[in-house]
Amino acid sequence: MINRMLEAKLLSLAAQFPVVTVTGPRQSGKSTLVQHAFPGYRYVSLEDEDMRGIAHDDPRMFLERFDNHVIFDEVQRVPELFSYMQGVIDRMDAPGQYILSGSQNFLLLKSISQSLAGRVAILHLLPLSYSELEETEHRPASINEFLFNGGYPRLHVRHIAPSDFFPNYISTYIDRDVRLELGVRKIAEFNTFVSLCATRIGEVLNLESLANDCDISVDTARSWLSVLESSFIAFRLHPYHKNYGKRLIKAPKLYFYDTGLAANLLGIESVDQLIESQYRGSLFENAAVLEIIKNAQALGQEPRLFFWRDSNQKEVDFITERGGRPQYAIEVKSSSTYRPRAFKNLEDIAPLMGVDEQHRFLVYAGEESFPTKHGKVLSFSDLGTLAQ
């Protein structure tokens, strides 16, 4: 298996909390991670129909059978377990009793908030980061290859072609999560919606335009976007909320949780096609925001991440906030060649937020990181350092 940076935080929290939950997309490596981190725990998959039936029929008896040092995988499939689990946890009052994992964020967190609040630590495991792949035999040959393949572990470990992996992934996702668990019925229209979302990566989201292109209502588009977010397919990045005397755009930008999936939805069939694609810059920007998020989550943190765009079309791709103040201002350029003028927006906007040159970063596709008088030029492989 490929070692995951999240494992250290997972073990640390299991020594403090009675329950630790790992949530994330399907096939992001959750089951592999928790079994590797806790080899002495019993593993129970509630994807198994027989096991799920037993848990549904008599949850109390089920938990008496598995009362301590247990991994419950896809636990959101049996939500009634959570209220019974609370009693066991309070009676035993010991850390590391249960390790839970699940791929339906909304259903899982809803059950946790109702029954296990204060007793559970929650971690997110997304597909592999570039940092995690870089130290393995599966290291991408180039950043373009990484954009094309994405980070799903099975694709790398089993050497599965993206053209084989992603159509099956999407089909499984539609059948299990969208149709059965979240109740979406207009499957053909939903497929079109997902593909059109991919064409809008890195753009300020116009929900009405998206709905019109899909021939659905704005309310349906809003609902389906929530479906994509709760199942870790796509997410919205919100604009910075402090205007510093400027009129700021209020709509969010849209990104995907995996660039390989997005590239497949865009019909990109090879690395060469990706290099020539009009979407390469958007996919590179998407990969950059994911690298920041993944490295922060590996430390058990949820980054406070925003973008800036004002009414004069001045834009900074990403702003990180810490302690209620801007920490870093980050511009992303997909070129492998550094050009000083790429710092222009940072130099115009960062001073308004009190972000000095040492905290301004230009991320590019080149291999070297180095300081300049404008700020620091950062290679993609060094992006993870911003989370430290």
From TrEMBL:
<dbReference type="InterPro" id="IPR041682">
    <property type="entry name" value="AAA_14"/>
</dbReference>
<dbReference type="Pfam" id="PF13173">
    <property type="entry name" value="AAA_14"/>
</dbReference>
<feature type="domain" description="AAA">
    <location>
        <begin position="17"/>
        <end position="133"/>
    </location>
</feature>
<dbReference type="Pfam" id="PF13635">
    <property type="entry name" value="DUF4143"/>
</dbReference>
<protein>
    <submittedName>
        <fullName>AAA(+) superfamily protein</fullName>
    </submittedName>
</protein>
<dbReference type="InterPro" id="IPR025420">
    <property type="entry name" value="DUF4143"/>
</dbReference>
<dbReference type="InterPro" id="IPR027417">
    <property type="entry name" value="P-loop_NTPase"/>
</dbReference>
<feature type="domain" description="DUF4143">
    <location>
        <begin position="176"/>
        <end position="335"/>
    </location>
</feature>
